Amino acid sequence: MTKDEIRQLQELLNKIGGLLKPDGLSGRNTRRAIADARRLADLPDGEDADDALIAWLKVQPDPSPDLPTEGVTFIALEEVGGRDFYEKTAARPAWPGVASGITIGVGYDLRFSADVFEADWGDKLPADQLKALRPHLGKLGSKAEAKALKDIVVPWTTSWQVFTARTLPHFVTLTRAAFPGFDALPGLCRSVLVSL
Length: 196
Fold this sequence. Notes:
Blueprint: H1 3-14, H2 28-40, H3 51-58, H4 69-80, H5 83-90, E1 103-104, E2 108-109, H6 117-121, H7 127-133, H8 143-148, H9 156-178, H10 187-195
Antiparallel strand pairs: 1-2
Helix pairs in contact: 4-10
C-alpha cells in the first residue's frame, strides 16, 4: 500500500475506534486496529487490510453525527491516552482522584452515571462485572475500591461502543446547550468544546 492508501485506511479505522494518527505509516497500532476491525467484521484473523475489510470499513457509520471522526478520535485519545495506555491501565476500573467516582471505559465516571448505567452497559458487560460495579454507582471512588475491582477488564471495542453510542452524544447535548452557537462552528472546534 502507498502512504496515501495507508493514511486513508487509518482514517477508516478511526471510524471504529482505531485511535490512530493518520500518518501513512503502517506500525504496530495500525496493525492492531486492522486485527480488531477484522474481528468486528467477522473476517479471518490477521493484520492485513484486504479488499473485504476496506469495503466493510467504508460502509461503517461515522462515530458521531455531530463531530468529525478526527474530533471524536481526539477526544478519546485525551481520555485514554492511546491504545497502549488503555490496555495497560484504563481497561480496568480506576479512580482518577479528587471528586471522581470509579471510572471505566472512555472516561465513564460511575459517580455521575448511576441513573443511566444499566442502559449504557447492561448489554455490554457480563452479569458478574455489572454486579461488582453497581455498589460504586453515584459514589465518590477511592484507590482501594479501584484495586478491589482489578479483575474487571473492559475490552477496547466495548468501551468505544459505549463512548460513541451513549457518552459522547450526552456530552454533545450538554455542550450544545451551553454554547448556543455550537452548530455554526467548524467540526474540530465543536470537538474541542465537547472535550472540555
